[in-house]
Amino acid sequence: MSMMSIRAATPRDREAIRLVEEHAFGQQAEAGLVDALVSGGDAVVELVAEEDGQVVGHILFSRLFVQNGGQSFPAVALAPLAV
Fold first, then answer.
1. Confidence (pLDDT) at 80
2. Would the pLDDT of 83 be above 80?
3. Which domains can be identified in the chain, with CATH numbers?
4. Each residue of 20-48: pLDDT tens digit?
5. Crossing angle for the helix pair 14-25 and 29-39, to the nearest 10 degrees
6. Cis bond leading into 74, ω under 30°?
7. pLDDT, tens digit, for every residue of 43-70?
8. Can you spell out the DSSP letters for the chain?
9. Under the phi-then-psi rule, with left for phi > 0, alpha for psi from -120 to 50, and beta for the rest, what region is 36?
């Protein structure tokens, strides 16, 4: 039985992350969203799940701002999550 490990994503994981996202969602939109968030500097936490040396899952928390009553509050969003 193999062990799954969780670790921080690295630039070398980009293509594997793209494949996981496309497989999980059945389209390229989410993979494009991940690319845009990362390249735009909005990724706060990005992790991959790895099994037998292969990326099999991905999670991304990105920064956003919540507007309420004319005020803006910093927050993070969990999106997308793919396994």
1. 82
2. no
3. 4-82 (3.40.630.30)
4. 999 999 999 999 999 999 999 999 999 99
5. 140
6. no
7. 999 999 999 999 999 999 999 999 999 9
8. -PPEEEEE--GGGHHHHHHHHHHHHSSSHHHHHHHHHHHTT-EEEEEEEEETTEEEEEEEEEEEEEEETTEEEEEEEEEEEE-
9. alpha
Non-local CB neighbours of 81 within 8 Å, separated by 6+ positions: 58, 59, 60
Phi-psi region of 14 (alpha: psi -120 to 50; beta: other; left: phi over 0): alpha
For the entire predicted model, the pTM comes to 0.88
Q: Rg of the Cα trace of the chain?
A: 14
Structural tokens at position 80: 């997308």
